[in-house]
Amino acid sequence: METTQQTESKIIELKPFADEMVVNMGPQHPSTHGVLRLELKLDGEVVREAIPHIGYLHRCFEKHSENLSYPQIIPFTDRMDYIAAMNQNWGFCLAVEKLLETDESRNFEVPERAEYLRVLICELNRIASHLLSFGTYGMDLGAFTPFLYAFRDRERLLLLFEKVCGARLTYNYVRIGGVSEIIPLEPGSITEQNYLDEVEAFLDYFEPKIDEYNELLTKNSIFTERTTEVAVMSADMALSYGATGPNLRGSGVDWDLRRDEPYSIYDRFDFDVPVAVDVPELGAVVGDCWCRYKIRMDEMKESVRIVRQILAEGLPDGPVMADLKAVRPPKGEIYFRSEAPRGELGFYIVSDGTPKPVRVKGRSPCFSALSVMQELSRGLMVADIIAIIGSIDIVMGEVDR
Amino acid sequence: MSDFRAMLAGFPNFNASESFFPNINLQDGLNWAEEFIQNVVLPRLPEAVASHFPVELGTVLVMFGCAGIFVAVVPLLPLVLVLAERKVAARFQNRTGPMRVGPWGVLQTLADGVKLLFKEDFIPPQGDKFLFLLAPYVIFACSFAVFAAIPFGQNILVSDFNIGIFYIMAISSVIVMGVIMAGWSSNSKWSLLGSLRSAAQIVSYEIPLGLSILTVVMLVESLSMSEIVASQSNGVFSWLIFRTPFTFIAFFIFFISGIAEVNRTPFDLPEAESEIVAGFHTEYSGMRFALFFIAEYANMFAVSAIAVTLFLGGWEGALPGYDIIGGLPGFVIKTLALVFLMMWLRWTLPRLRVDQLMNLCWKYFIPIAFFNILGTGIWGLIFPEDTLVSTGISCAIIYIGLIAAYKMAGRTFAERPAPQPS
Description:
By secondary structure, chain A is of the alpha+beta class.
């Protein structure tokens, strides 16, 4: 697809022979969200070029996977996008399950209860992930307080996760064929009802908070000054670079795997997919930093809606794990993609019928999003680079794997 | 004593009648120190010692002693302010702030100070060592020199210059020299970026700051801080902020420019930690870093104190004849209220970008400040004396203006439709 540049209003005329200052932003820098290194070529405060250098967090996930059995790989997926580890577990398990389903002889199916638990937990994890994104974005732009508000609310979510799987960051909760068996939620028991009540109490607390955060940061005029019309990523550009998730929808492309290629039980829920539109009151145009940010704020509301529907239905009875003697997918290969908080998370798995995969490839949404960086940042100011990094919401653990 | 005075008179600048600055009252300063020696010290000394007591030397020593007390006491302000800032920030953010060191964590800043004192004093080997060592002292000294001209109370004033506010402007502009020295000598690109941002910012914001001070000076017809305070002695409506509608605007320009001058959010670009690490003091550690830190908080207090002196009545009370929020406690309360406002802004707002910062200054503040000067001049022609009528008209205009601004702001903020997903 041909890349066309949309309105680049912030391009500043550069003198061709002015001195250039090369600055390494990162890998130790307060706002590169981990260990990203950006090689900035500066003309004063104006960025001529920002070249991302990655690999500081490379842990050979794909090579490791070739020597491990399928269930053993799941903890490694936790370490990819550690902000939304539930979704990473799920993405991998979905791919393996898809492969298992191709085996006609086994009649494999994920139990209903497990599917509900997965959607419940993963949507809560999406909220936690977007909360972190919101908080750190505020901090990148100099507002420290939203960051702590976000962490306050995320803390309640982490406690909820801890109750079902015992961990706060790397959950290893979603397993192939269901969810972890150590959950204390016996079907229909008091603990289950208590847990669901706690989730509901959190939602009741959290939903008004989103509006509060919108007042605090989203509509703040300094914030809109900093983010609107900055680094406009056109729909063509987003598609050609493979940007997905909130970044793609922030460019005005109406695409969400949960709705357009429903996996698991997403087709049973009623939710909207927020897509960026021009907001002339605030000066926002489709594809700018503000829109990418706003999509995340709106998605939190949609996640709340989905979780509320689960709470209204109640969890179905039954087992949480499919009857799997051993995870031994048939010979074959599979690519399966799911909608993680940061975009389209894909796993490509080649199996030769043994308990260990021959090849595992992770398709990282953050990696694709980061590749846009170089084109977006040309001609902007140093401060805008920070705004871009925050708005594309990268997690280096997933970029480097 | 006469020898000493004669010696002083030898310096042209100290000669009261012939100097360029005609009435610098160094003589007054000598008088009270000399009186202190004559009336307090000498009667308590044995006769034999008193007759040979070197009064001139004693006078100078007493002055040095006072300066020492001043230099020792004023740095305590930042200690309190740092703790206050941390507590205020904590309250904004649903936290408790420091709680471990001392009751309610009151000794936290002291503990931090001691920690910084014992840390390694790192000097970048490739940097300019001399400038690197000098820079914190330049900033520290200039920040505290400002306090010399601030009237804390009726007689609590280090030196009553007749050019007080001019002196403050001049001294506080030297701070930018220290910032540039720090940034340049660190031999770090982040420091350089930060210091150049700071230079551009401080030099730009000096202009609206100075212009808004000028409106006050036009009304009072004096640069002396004590005379500016004395002109506001008739209660809250004689405070210069309410004297004319233009000084009301000037107060806000002064205060916002002041925030920019002391590099605080939303104008903290020179030390924007998420962009350029820590700006000009990136490479500083230990006590030198502490000096920057203390200077920052001292500046914050100084700007608030100047705003109070110029616009909010200084140490004068709110009612004529009654000492309500007057005197030293009143002055400190008013100043701390403005400091709190600064902290409030810092923990609420994001940071501006460099070009937006410059736009705000050159496209909005400076034209408005010039308009203020014009308006104040016209106001002075219409109402040569500050009367009940002029104050009434002024307050009415301010009230109507505030209502109109609130209505306009209300319309733009409240009726913004929420962006609807398509």
